[in-house]
Amino acid sequence: MNLNLTVSARGQGLLEITREVAETVRGSGVRDGLATLYIRHTSASLLIQENADPAVLRDLEGWLNRLVPEEDRLYTHTAEGPDDMPAHIKSALTATSLSIPLVGGELALGTWQGIFLWEHRHHRDNREVLINVIGT
Fold first, then answer.
1. CA of 60: how far to CAs of 53, 67, 101, 116, 130, in Å?
2. pLDDT tens-place string over residues 99-121
3. Residue 105 φ/ψ, nearest 5 degrees
């Protein structure tokens, strides 16, 4: 079963979407199986990460921004702005899909795990996440 989730990204950063994904998956009626999430964009990504301490997210964002700076003179793809090529690189270094087991109709995430959409552009609106749910 394929389900669509539209996420409003307010700009660059990590946005927790655990609740929205869980509600969408629950609506499928599948109790035991697998949910695969796929982001349909080349300048954003998906991540499972700690959702308890916001410092973790700040540190991840800071580290990736330092690793892939904007306005590097080596970039040749610059027509869409100074954040576009770094966004593509960040997306390539992270993940565009996630697989999460379903147990008893719930996502089998760990205690401190959350699902995040990682927006790599400064100014974006909606992002689409395709959720494929299989099982019984």
1. 12, 11, 25, 12, 24
2. 999 999 999 999 999 999 999 99
3. 80, 5
Burial environment of residue 12 by CB neighbours within 10 A (0 to 12, 13 to 18, 19 or more): buried
Question: At residue 134, what is the residue type?
Answer: I
Q: 25 vs 1, 14, 73, 114, CA distance in Å? A: 10, 21, 43, 15
Evaluate if pTM is beyond 0.85: yes
Surface-to-core class of residue 69, CB atoms within 10 Å of its CB (0-12 exposed, 13-18 middle, 19+ buried): exposed
Q: How large is the average pLDDT for residues 8-19? A: 96
Binning the chain into helix, strand and coil, the percentages to the nearest 5 are 25, 40, 40
- Residue pair 11/118 in contact (Cβ under 8 Å)? The answer is no
CA-closest candidate to residue 82, choices 71, 66, 92: 71
Q: Which two tokens stand for residue 85?
A: 């090529």
